[in-house]
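lol so apparently i was supposed to do this last week
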Amino acid sequence: MRVLVMLDGTVVDPGTPVIRVDDLGITRGDGVFETILVVDGKPRELGPHLDRLDRSAAMLQLPPPSRPDWEHCVQAVLDNWRGGAEMALKMIYTRGPEFGDGTPTGYAMGLEIGEKVLRARQTGVAAITLDRGYDPEIVSRAPWLLLGAKSLSYAVNMAATRHAESVGASEVIFIAADGSVLEGPTSSVVLVNGRTLRTTPPSSGILKGTTQGALFRAAERAGWVTKVEPVTLAELREADALFMASSVRKITRVHTLDGTALADTTDLREELNALYESEY
Ligand SMILES: Cc1ncc(COP(=O)(O)O)c(C=O)c1O
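anyway here it is w/ pyridoxal-5'-phosphate bound
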């Protein structure tokens, strides 16, 4: 790790212990986070990421994050970065130590982008569909399930990714109990049919993707039709092309779905990535 800045703006040597062992973020995964892509010192979609941090914190009933403090903290990471042109900037906001005074723990880290992600941007990924185990109908009825919050409890998402790797794939597309398509463990799903882009709605208990949002903005300007609506598994399989979108992976092509090779859509990948880049 290269840069660590606490929410109060203190720049800390990344090797220094700064978090208590009884922090509820560690002992219960009780907190929220964001990962932002920074290119040439400029954070992408900072406003939408901070908005999502606010929404996630509200769902967990955490104290509202202070926007000026976070903006200051993010700026300090940018100012102290000595790594490559791209950086993954992670913001962590937990409920703080158990039996503490209720003050959340907050910090931001600047990290290099992992090799696996960089390779996948070029080569694409093999994805498998996996059950996520809930019906979208539960989302509004059981807000304590925190569906759609970017909470620190990502163990399930990581386990799903490991399962994909154990069967020779590298990505997962989660499917709800009613057969509708959800999202990846760390990405949004984008389908292409002709000149129409589709993604699945946050009302199904998934994250509103900032990368998908940027892509759709640019695509609409370029004359594409965009749709945010429920997608069935059959529609996923019949799409002209599939992509996984997230801040660090950008718009990564799915070349194989459940073991079936998809049509070569390298040109489309380049077109969509160019549209996405045109936002910055
Ligand atoms: C579950 C999930 N869905 C979607 C996304 C994509 O969001 P964004 O494009 O804002 O990075 C992420 C990002 O990590 C995620 O964890």
